[in-house]
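Researcher: Re-running this chain for the archive, since the previous output was lost when a drive failed. Same request as before.
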Amino acid sequence: MALFFIEMGQGIVVDGDVSVCTSTLFSCSLIAGWNQNTNAAGAYHYPASSLGKADVLADMNAWAARLQPTQVILVVAEAMNALEVQTFGRDEAALQAWIQQQCQVAAAVDHQTAAAMCFQNGHFSAGVPSALPGGSGAFGRSSAISVTNRQAGVYPDHGGFTLIGHDRENAPRAAVHATNANANKPACCIIL
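Model: Regenerated structure tokens:
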């Protein structure tokens, strides 16, 4: 089973067993989903306070359309003070409304500072990595397949996956497109 690392603003969908980990949730959220009819699963790392941004919403809608989840778990950053409770609460409510409208399901919600998701042998879970199959050790970034430098698209390596969006944490959209003249071609990769 492949373990992928996605960054803020990226989503991934895999047909079959998969695990996904991401960076620390300071104010962001992880939307994890599974389609029980197709056994596709994946996650989207939502950038905080971005639901009103057209490019983020387009990426989220593309992720939901590709996956068509029948189950969703929303992992929201754990608030540390009163201001964060208010801010994160607005994001959580807006994300729950989006999930209900776009995915046609009600999301289970968890509050954590770290997040991962796992779909293995028909079992779907998301939340803090230590509570998922294999524990924290199974979700180490150093052992994950990082897709942060790849363009959105369909890739045949690592069992095949669809990558949506781009790394909004480390590379602004303009820089990503300006540095990749071959945006329609997958990056060279090592097949494990």
